[in-house]
Amino acid sequence: MKPQPLFTRAGAALWIEAAYTILAEEGHRELTIERLTAVTGKTRGSFYHHFGSVDGFTTRVLDDWREQNTERIARIAVTDPEPSGRRALVHREAVRLDARIEIAIRRWAGADGKVLGVCQGVDRRRMDVLVRDLVALAHSKGRTLLPDEAEKLARLEYAAFIGAQMLAPEGRLDALPDIGPLYEEMLHAYLERPEAASKTLA
């Protein structure tokens, strides 16, 4: 028999931690009260005490995911005043994320409109952070990125991140070859091109 996971959180947070374990290992279809009580060893009464309903639980899980995997990283990044430093901090934290959870939530979004809305909001928030720092990085090099140009560069970078999550063995992005430095070298080469030549991307 598979051993039960050991959780580090308590109260409502324990249930959310259990949800991540189930999402990563079994997928959203197994995210049921029955499975959660079996994994946590807690009762249905405890579940309803903390969340009130399945919908309330879903909201709390998604809020926690957004906070831990997006807003927390955004706050860490702004501690560095330099755009290149902020980008390095975002990269460092992003590769530490469990890609299995990210992928499971995207699959869940395909079956649940509420989850889809949260996922799209998270994607937009992450893109906005990338756009902000790309514009600032270009400015530090004496370049001005037009909004459409910055959006396309951010989309390219974010698409590479999502693709890396799909390739990550056992959900570990840090187990993949680190293409971050190569991407940064390519980005800097692009930003240092004569401004007229860069209009081809926009």
Structural topology:
Layout: H1 12-25, H2 33-40, H3 44-51, H4 54-77, H5 83-94, H6 99-109, H7 113-140, H8 147-167, H9 180-191
Query: How many DSSP-defined strands?
Result: 0
Sequence stretches where pLDDT stays below 50 over 5 or more residues: none
Separation of the first and last Cα atoms: 56 Å
Secondary structure tally, helices: 9
Q: Give, in order, the helices and strands.
A: HHHHHHHHH
Rg, rounded, reads 20 Å
Mean pLDDT: 92
Q: Work out the strand percent.
A: under 5%
The amount of helix comes to 55-70%
* Inertia-based shape: elongated
The main pleated sheet reads as:
none
The tally of domains stands at 2
Class derived from helix and strand content = mainly alpha
Keywords:
single chain, 202 residues, Arc Repressor Mutant, subunit A, 68% helix
Word description of this protein:
With 202 residues, the chain is an all-alpha fold. It has 2 domains: 1-52, Homeodomain-like (Arc Repressor Mutant, subunit A), CATH 1.10.10; 63-200. It is 68% helix and 0% strand. It is built from 9 helices and no strands. It has helices at residues 12-25, 33-40, 44-51, 54-77, 83-94, 99-109, 113-140, 147-167, 180-191. α1 crosses α2 (33-40). The relative contact order is 0.10.
